[in-house]
Amino acid sequence: MSSSFGLVFRVSTWGESHGPGVGVVVDGCPSCIALSAEDVQRELDRRRPGQSDIVTPRKEEDRVEILSGVLEGRTLGTPIAMLVRNKDHRSSAYDEMQHIYRPSHADYCYDAKYGLRAWAGGGRASARETIGRVAAGAVARAVVRTLCPQVEVVAWVQQVHHICCPVPPEEVSAQAVESNIVRTADAASAEAMAAAIREARGRGDSLGGVIGCTVRNCPVGLGDPVFDKLEATLGHAMLSIPACKGFEVGSGFSAPSFTGISHNDPFCMEGTRVRTRTNHSGGIQGGISNGEDILMRLAFKPTATLMVEQETVNDQGQSTTLRGKGRHDACVLPRAVPIVEAMAWITLCDHLLRQRTVSAARS
Fold first, then answer.
1. What are the beta bridge partners of residue 310?
2. What is the C-alpha to C-alpha distance for residues 235 and 307, in angstroms, rounded to an integer?
3. Confidence of residue 59 (pLDDT cuts 50, 70, 90)
4. pTM for the complete prediction?
């Protein structure tokens, strides 16, 4: 099972949803980077369950324990191990599902591939695995902001079902995103989205949507062609997030509606800096960052666990029905925002440390 991501900055998550705990090991972090448990906890608090009435009511503090790699508030350059203990797991809610395959979950696929699965809570297929990603993202953020203080990563809920946030990416602020429980960039949109999520939850249904993410003030030169283009590794990172079913950079799937003349980004000079007049490329050309804002969009499916009866089969091949139990998000997007940001920071950090090696060789 592939549980690691990154080449130089290497992140390996571990643990099951209803096991004793979940966590991450971060290898390749430079030494002497300022890092505290509070830095990590701040991001985990944005991801944790039970933070509003539109997310899962599972009550977890998600308190991080840094087990290695940090001394007196600075990284040692050795592997950083972090643990979050599971305290409010209720495996009995999944007893009925031990032998029944939940529609659109990984149950059947895990059984077919491994011959065994952690049926309580979904094990590694649970979104609780992303705790390790968010913790590692806090480390990556500390590294990138130490080396390049101007870099900013902001993600936000751009769409829930048919409700769209009208704020353009260049105007989205982290403060606006964190000012509402949906984590969108517009107050009126937040109210409408929250109402739609509550309505879906009330009828046992769920909703999907789109998360936008922008990287501002990205250094020029990040990305390793041919197979490790920046958008390729960002796509790998984002599509590995549970429930993410689509990814695009820049004009993305709207590109076919352009002509070459209208789509090209003409270069110009702004003082001594090379800029582009438009940004259909989304800040990446030839797989390498060009210094413009990196613009991404991620499509998330509706949550698969539904509180209505659905047809399915069991592990003996017999037809049956199943109604969802347990505590689940009716829409994953509000809690997915910090996960998207974390995977962006991890990817940027890995490419930045790779580029430092290239720059050192050139000099």
1. 322
2. 32
3. confident
4. 0.96
